[in-house]
Amino acid sequence: MPSKIIRRNSKIHGQGVFATAPIKAGEEVVEYKGKLRTHAEVDDEYGGHDDGHTFLFILNDDYVIDANIGGNVARWINHGCSPNCKAYVIGNEDDDPRKDRVVIEALRDIAAGEELTYDYDIQVEGPISAEERKLWACRCGAPNCTGSMIHLARKGVKRRATA
Which residues make Cβ contacts (< 8 Å) with residue 145, sequence separation at least 6? Predict the structure, then answer.
């Protein structure tokens, strides 16, 4: 089946992903691909250097998908506060965390030409500094835009970066 998405310049941020044909609600749009790495490997390579731009997706407690290496078009999907897509981690039926995967699914019908977005749901232990807010500023333009891609972690919920 031919792809219904393409990467191009975005008004939200740099590059974005746009529908080239209508996408139905509930339709799997794309799988988030990249090199499977442990959290320790990612921390060793990128740790301590936040620049507000990442192609890392936390897959599970053991692994991260690093779309900087072998990533596909999914890495260019921007954050949105009123997203039209959602990222789902699909667990492997053999309970092998190396075989888990991430799929991006349409939350609603998406028209051709519309930019795809999902909530990155980047959670940090509070408080969020002014520098962090600036670094992770949201530019989605939605009426309900929070102005930031990061949120205070909910009590009992692990930190999760999904983009």
Answer: 81, 82, 138
Residues 40, 128, 48: CA angle, nearest 5 degrees: 30
As given in the structure block, the two tokens for residue 57 are 């997706």
Residue 27 token pair: 């339709």
Task: Classify strands 85-90 and 101-106 as parallel, antiparallel or unpaired.
Answer: antiparallel
The sign one gets for the Cα dihedral 123, 32, 110, 10 is: positive
- Decide if pLDDT at 72 tops 60: yes
- CATH architecture, domain defined by 5-46+53-119: Beta Complex (2.170)
Cis ω on the peptide bond leading into residue 22 (within 30° of 0)?
no
Q: Which long-range contacts (CB under 8 A, 24 or more apart) does 46-50 make?
A: 50/132, 50/135, 50/136
Q: Residue 53: pLDDT band by 50, 70, 90 thresholds? A: low
| pTM, full prediction | 0.86
Closest of 115, 116, 129, 105 to residue 52, by C-alpha: 129
